[in-house]
Design goal:
Layout: H1 44-48, H2 51-60, H3 83-92, H4 99-109, H5 124-137, E1 150-153, H6 157-171, E2 178-181, H7 187-196, E3 200-203, H8 205-213, E4 224-227, H9 230-235, H10 239-243
Parallel strand pairs: 1-3, 1-4, 2-3
């Protein structure tokens, strides 16, 4: 099983099942704490925007929607992000949201599940990272021994490190801590980050499973999950690890 060495940073699974030591958690649904996930407050401009204008915007951005979704936003101010997010957006010098952001933010901020398909360089990392920061800041603070609130899985070390750069830029102003864990690097520093407690973990599947099996982290607090380049992870043979 496993990924037979394809792709960097995936971990090695020679002669053993990935996650063979992991057991499905037995949740006691009576004692699970509820958590908030709908933080979307539509901007008055978005609410009042006529149907024809919305359809024209979707067509101009080549946005296709399958299923129910809130109206897209057209300007950053319409996302109703908190000030700490908007100040970082302004600092980065972005003019307008990209297509995946314009439609993705209202969906993600509403706490809905979504599959987003967009080209490389289309701003999809911010499409899920900004709602992740808002989600995290609306949860109970991490306690000692808690795992991450947001988990981002990526197929390669390179992509995982790129994602962490974005998480750092937008998380630092709100004290959202992140770490990047991947194979092919010493486990010590990565394990220390996990044990200290981080709100966001960006990981390749193999190394994450190693840490879960060793009890270095857990997913009991995880309420925001992203599979970045999910199709590529499946192509690379990561399905058994993802299912674990």
């Amino acid at each position: 099983g496993g990924n037979s060495g394809r792709g960097s940073g995936g971990g090695s699974f020679k002669n053993k099942q990935p996650g063979g030591g992991l057991r499905k958690p037995e949740w006691d649904f009576n004692s699970l704490s509820p958590f908030a996930k709908d933080f979307y407050n539509p901007h008055p401009n978005v609410v009042s925007r006529p149907f024809n204008e919305v359809q024209h915007f979707l067509a101009s951005k080549e946005i296709t929607i399958k299923g129910q979704a809130p109206k897209p936003i057209q300007f950053f101010e319409e996302a109703n992000f908190p000030d700490y997010i908007m100040s970082e957006v302004r600092k980065q010098g972005f003019d307008f949201p990209t297509a995946i952001q314009a439609q993705g933010w209202p969906i993600a901020m509403s706490g809905m599940n979504m599959v987003g398909v967009a080209k490389t360089g289309s701003g999809k990392t911010l499409a899920y990272m900004l709602p992740a920061c808002v989600h995290i800041n609306n949860q109970e603070p991490l306690k000692r021994g808690d795992g991450p609130i947001a988990l981002v899985l990526a197929p390669t070390r390179e992509l995982a490190q790129q994602i962490q750069q974005v998480a750092r830029e937008f998380g630092s102003s709100t004290c959202v801590r992140s770490t990047c864990i991947f194979g092919g690097a010493p486990k010590g520093p990565q394990a220390r980050d996990l044990m200290r407690g981080v709100e966001i973990v960006i990981a390749t599947p193999g190394r994450l499973i190693d840490f879960l099996e060793q009890g270095q982290t857990n997913l009991k607090r995880c309420t925001y999950l992203v599979l970045d380049e999910a199709d590529r992870m499946l192509d690379m043979g990561f399905e058994p690890q993802i299912r674990k």
